[in-house]
Design brief:
Elements: E1 9-10, H1 26-29, E2 41-45, H2 49-65, E3 75-78, H3 81-91, H4 94-103, H5 142-165, H6 169-185, H7 190-199, E4 211-218, E5 224-227, H8 235-242, E6 249-251, E7 254-258, E8 276-280, H9 297-306, E9 310-314, H10 334-357
Parallel strand pairs: 2-3, 2-8, 3-4, 8-9
Antiparallel strand pairs: 1-9, 4-5, 4-7, 6-7
């Protein structure tokens, strides 16, 4: 899944189309200007659907198992599935979360025969990668999985058409927000059901004392939004909003869509000013927006480094590609994705230790 090298551990930004000079301004993206610090650490948890969430937990658990705890930094930034992971890590140990994924009863993919079609579903807001060949985890071929993944593909086609018609990131966010509001209007009670679903995934309902930023976009205005414990919004609502890539999620009189539409699936620019920034990116830093909009993760990493931050980026091994992209909402792949992440974390712990602990 690495778009710039074959290594699952990216230490350099190599995407020529995503240089620091093209990164969206702080004011436009809604991030705060901070002075660089050599004593603060930030963990960035990117979006990536259900399998992406499992991979994120796996990586953090693998690092922890190998003696490196990255779960309690001075700042955690979560987007979409990463917002769920951020909230989960705030309320339970990485190993507990990892073991819970492995012991959970496999669920059918969204849209598969026999699933509850009345339940609200949120597809991934980040890139879909076409998959070919056999699925070694389940023994099924990709052809037999297409029926189950069709809702995700349809969602990506619909949003892709909106993106193509947009003239800028701000225009895209407004258009996507308007479409999501329209979808929500046709799904009575969807927000309440989605909230209940998200609540079951969180170990605790309260915001933690340490800093956590969860991203979203105001569906009515298209403005970027960053929730924290001082926003006056419940943790479960902030997570539900950050994961709302299908219909617009309601909080009071406002409606929100997926935080992956703020800039990209990671929103690493929010870590500006932190000395060490660890980015975990299930989708390898790819973005669906035009290169000239400057929304690539590589550009944000370049900007962070230019501001004095040390940045390391971890992405899934290339052998795990079939678990992400079009299969990102296949719940049955969560245990396998978590295991892949766990092994990566164990392998990378010694390499990351000096970067993280020495901050």
């Amino acid at each position: 899944m690495n778009t710039s090298s074959s290594s699952p551990f990216n230490n350099n930004s190599t995407a020529a189309s995503s240089r620091a000079g093209t990164v969206q301004s702080q004011a436009e993206t809604g991030s705060a200007v901070q002075q660089p610090s050599t004593r603060q650490r930030a963990l960035v948890l990117g979006g990536g659907g259900s399998t992406g969430n499992a991979w994120l937990i796996g990586v953090v658990a693998g690092l922890f198992d190998a003696g490196l705890d990255v779960a309690t930094p001075e700042l955690t930034i979560g987007t979409s599935a990463g917002s769920t992971a951020a909230a989960q890590l705030a309320g339970a140990s990485p190993i507990e979360l990892f073991e819970a994924i492995l012991s959970s009863v496999p669920q059918k993919p969204a849209g598969a025969k026999g699933t509850d079609k009345s339940a609200p579903r949120q597809a991934s807001a980040v890139p879909v990668r076409s998959a070919t060949g056999p699925d070694t985890e389940t023994g099924r071929t990709i052809e037999t999985r297409r029926t189950a993944t069709r809702p995700v593909v349809d969602h990506m086609e619909r949003t892709g058409n909106i993106m193509k018609a947009s003239s800028s990131m701000a225009d895209m966010r407004r258009r996507l927000g308007a479409a999501a509001v329209e979808i929500a209007a046709s799904m009575e009670g969807a927000s309440a059901r989605w909230r209940a679903t998200v609540a079951t995934r969180l170990p605790q309902a309260q915001w933690p004392e340490r800093a956590i930023l969860l991203t979203a976009v105001n569906a009515r205005t298209g403005e970027p939004v960053v929730f924290d414990r001082d926003s006056g919004v419940d943790l479960v609502d902030a997570v539900a909003a950050s994961c709302a890539s299908g219909f617009a999620y309601s909080i009071g009189d406002e409606q929100y869509i997926d935080g992956g539409y703020r800039t990209n699936a990671e929103n690493a620019d929010l870590a500006a000013g932190y000395g060490s920034v660890l980015v975990l990116s299930p989708f390898g830093g790819r973005t669906r927006t035009p290169a000239e909009w400057g929304m690539h993760l590589a550009g944000q990493v370049d900007a962070l480094r230019a501001g004095g931050s040390q940045v390391e980026t971890v992405i899934p091994d290339s052998e795990a590609e079939h678990m992400f992209g079009v299969n990102a909402m296949d719940f049955s792949l969560r245990p396998a994705a978590a295991r892949v992440g766990f092994e990566q974390g164990r392998v990378l712990a010694s390499r990351l230790a000096g970067f993280w602990v020495g901050c």
